[in-house]
Design goal:
alpha/beta; 13 strands; globular
Length: 316
């Protein structure tokens, strides 16, 4: 038997058939095309599930369960209570999928939690039962796995490590607070920090790099750093300290086996990961413990969400 995993995003809808070895056998993908009604979006979700089954050479009778990851908050009844970038308020997602695909078991969770589940079982976690995934993207996404289960809290909104404050009265965050980890460690924050440094250092090579690329990106400061540019070095050093600060907080609070770090910034590889590991090793509270949390780079990329969603039924 097989499972279907769905990754519902603000940009794309992706559905995949996943086997028991966590391999993707067939995928359907289409733009989400927001804003539009939930009914229209769920019609496309069902169509992508059917396309994935066709490509995998299976039928609905071969499917054990359907899992879906979505932005926002999902309650225990499979209702998406709120997803701002989809325009969803109290959308009965589980029932809507059953209406379109039949009376299969359907499981729905936050997309960051699904990605964490995918990495924990099928990616760098290699089956780890105590695992945290952090994604450095437009924001800082995170998912927490304890004893093999997703941690959601009493209101299904838990696990938001990006909104831990690391700087009281610091930079404004989109959540309404100030000083959140996300406001310092996201790719968006890195771009802001790069632009601020470019204003401070008009002779920085970052100006040439940004002009050549056509924009300031998350790569600009790292590329400048590799050229020995003082401003680039300053931006990268500070950014890595900000990322490390949040990782150390997670280690001290949860002591997971692994913290998986993903997102486009991780394409920097050892330039990012090596100093992060060094900071965590130096500043963790558990300095004398024989077992220490490993800081690892994500392995599954964009597949983490659909694989994790497909696994939702097996961890209930």
């Amino acid at each position: 038997m097989y499972n279907i995993g769905i990754d519902l995003g603000g940009t794309n809808i992706v559905a995949s058939v996943v086997n028991e070895d966590y391999r993707i056998l067939g995928t359907g993908k289409t733009p989400t095309s927001t804003p539009r009604s939930a009914d229209e979006i769920f019609d496309d979700i069902a169509a992508m599930c059917r396309e994935a089954m066709d490509k995998a050479g299976v039928t609905i009778n071969d499917i054990s369960s359907i899992g879906m990851g979505t932005p926002g908050t999902v309650n225990g009844e499979g209702v998406i209570e709120f997803a701002n970038n989809l325009g969803f308020n109290n959308v009965p997602a589980r029932d809507m999928l059953k209406e379109r695909l039949g009376d299969l078991p359907v499981f729905i969770a936050n997309d960051a939690n699904c990605a964490a589940l995918g990495e924990a079982y099928a990616g760098c976690g290699n089956g780890s039962k105590n695992f945290v995934a952090v994604t450095l993207g437009t924001g800082v996404g995170s998912g927490i796995i304890v004893d093999g289960k997703i941690v959601t809290g009493v209101n299904f909104a838990g696990g938001e490590c990006g909104h831990m404050v690391i700087m009281v009265d610091g930079e404004a965050c989109t959540c309404g607070r100030r000083g959140c980890w996300e406001a310092y460690a996201s790719a968006t924050a890195l771009i802001r920090q790069t632009k601020e440094a470019m204003e401070k250092y008009p002779d920085s090579v970052m100006h040439e790099l940004a002009k050549a690329e056509g924009k300031v990106s998350g790569r600009t400061a790292f590329d400048a750093m590799r050229k020995g540019d003082i401003a680039g070095i300053e931006v990268v050093d500070n950014y890595i300290k900000y990322v490390a600060c949040g990782l150390i907080d997670i280690v001290n609070a949860l002591q997971p086996e692994i913290i998986c770090v993903g997102g486009g910034i991780c394409n920097e590889g050892d330039t990012l990961m090596t100093p992060l590991k060094r900071f965590v090793q130096a500043e963790r509270y558990s300095i004398h413990s024989k077992i220490q949390t490993k800081i690892m780079k994500a392995e599954l990329g964009n597949d983490a969400g659909v694989i994790g969603a497909a696994l939702l039924g097996s961890i209930q």
